[in-house]
DNA sequence: GTCTATATAGTGATAGAC
DNA sequence: GTCTATCACTATATAGAC
């Protein structure tokens, strides 16, 4: 085994960091290949085009996070049926794990935030087509926990949860990690607070 | 009086729409001046640089929205003291009014969302320096309504509110405006739902 | 205040040697 | 699989005529 990263992996990692900092449009392939310390032609060899590279950057992490969410959701339904907080934890904690992880996880959360803001190109469609079933699973699970909730109200509140989660995980807001607290503890605190806040909101 | 827009105003309007659609980095001054139907050199004459144009696009609307928020907050505190929902309405509804307004208001909300995602350049600092006092006013007002709330918890929840608001106003989520409902009604519904959701969260 | 023309640099992508 | 060299374009910014 080897601790080396392949050219392809180095390109993906560098692209992820730069996309998060500057956006897709503002990030040039030359910046990416320079940071990855590979030749400019390598990105076209491995990915074909810049747009394809953007999609690969997403797929790599989102697939993992979606699987993580669905497996936690199944556990929650099996072991703690009818408990809203467990469902919300299955939604929130994989995002937290991603954001707190090494290898630019925090950067990736900002990439997601950007993806939503870039509403015109095919990226949003790509995300909703590929991961829409995850959202629908959670909608069903939450509806089972809050029986009287109207469908439209459920969807509004899911949107609020998604927004609050994205915002908090990306460190957009007022809250900054205090000096004495490590990253993982800080993220865990965020998850606890959000689950409590959202649970009250869904039940109101 | 005239219904004409000046060159400067046309540049600002076109820039706002394009920034919202594509981001700052990906939007060229040529796109801006082409849409505004002005010469490419005009933007440098009126704004000096692209970065300055970006700042002006923000300032123009954020100043109005912040004033609107503070005036509604003062009214709420005077007329409906201690009522959390009135405070939240003062925070949420000016954003809604902006998003529902003509002249690319919906686009502008996405510009704000982008500003938060672009964490590296000076834009975030510019926003927090210029509008931080508004956030602090609302923090104080909400704290007065929910006396037992710890300061840290209050800030977490303010972040959740901000995230949910941004996300919902920008139409990022699952909820789409139904065909029979006009834009303004849809936005008003969003505000009502969010105020209810957040009020329950703050009180939990 | 608006225009044309242009300086200077960076862009994505590709061809072809190794 | 990686390299150099280069193509055709576009970018921001500015100089100077009107």
TrEMBL record, chains A, B:
Gene3D superfamilies: Tetracycline Repressor, domain 2. Residues 5-65 form the HTH tetR-type domain. PROSITE patterns: HTH_TETR_1, HTH_TETR_2. Residues 28-47 bind DNA. It comes from the Bacteria. InterPro entries: DNA-bd_HTH_TetR-type_CS, Homeodomain-like_sf, HTH-type_TetR-like_transc_reg, HTH_TetR, PsrA_TetR_C, Tet_transcr_reg_TetR-rel_C_sf. Transmembrane segments: none annotated. Pfam families: TetR_C_30, TetR_N. GO terms for molecular function: DNA-binding transcription factor activity; transcription cis-regulatory region binding. Keywords: DNA-binding. Signal peptide: none annotated. This is TetR/AcrR family transcriptional regulator.
């Amino acid at each position: 085994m080897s601790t080396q990263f392949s050219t392809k992996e180095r390109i993906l990692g560098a692209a992820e960091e730069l996309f998060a900092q500057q956006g897709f449009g503002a990030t040039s392939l030359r910046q990416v290949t320079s940071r990855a310390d590979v030749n400019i032609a390598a990105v076209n060899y491995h990915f074909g085009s810049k747009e394809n590279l953007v999609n690969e950057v997403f797929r790599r992490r989102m697939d993992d996070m979606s699987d993580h969410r669905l497996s936690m959701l199944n556990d929650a339904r099996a072991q703690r049926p009818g408990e809203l907080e467990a469902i919300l934890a299955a939604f929130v904690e994989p995002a937290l794990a991603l954001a707190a992880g090494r290898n630019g996880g925090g950067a990736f959360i900002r990439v997601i935030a950007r993806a939503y803001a870039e509403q015109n190109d095919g990226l949003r469609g790509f995300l909703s087509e590929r991961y829409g079933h995850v959202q629908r699973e959670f909608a069903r699970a939450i509806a089972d926990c809050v029986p009287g909730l109207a469908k439209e109200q459920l969807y509004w509140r899911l949107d609020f949860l998604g927004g609050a989660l994205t915002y908090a995980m990306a460190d957009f807001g007022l809250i900054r990690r205090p000096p004495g607290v490590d990253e993982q503890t800080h993220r865990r605190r965020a998850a606890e607070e959000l689950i409590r806040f959202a649970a009250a909101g869904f039940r109101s």
